[in-house]
């Protein structure tokens, strides 16, 4: 489950990057078409970048967020704070979809919050993925990063008393 947790969290982070690239591509394509004399209005069809952003944001990332939340409960014994960060990521995904809907329904300025929340989501997904590099605490003890090697390559020069 630890590896599944890491992979799903990583896929969410990658999905956020794809979302940013696709929305930029989509709108630069619109600007290019308008500069070439085409009309962009409510009758215009979505281009590839806009479609990738739409389906990735409405389907792929929310499904991955839900999967991460479920996996976080299964990986809780081996991944410290798995449920906490799985919940944070899922909550940010839900907020991201809500901000997109509100930006279209209420005020386009809400789109700025949609963009800012995407950065929070990226950071939270990367943090969740990084939790798999830390050993789970034993019997209520603190989480300690995994040691890279069992024995140091050079002896310590500090005398032990």
Automatic annotation (TrEMBL):
Membrane spanning stretches: 50-76, 88-113
Superkingdom per UniProt: Bacteria
Keywords: Membrane, Transmembrane, Transmembrane helix
Protein name: Uncharacterized protein
Record field: compositional bias (Polar residues): 150-161
Provenance organism: Blastococcus jejuensis
Disordered, as annotated region: 138-161
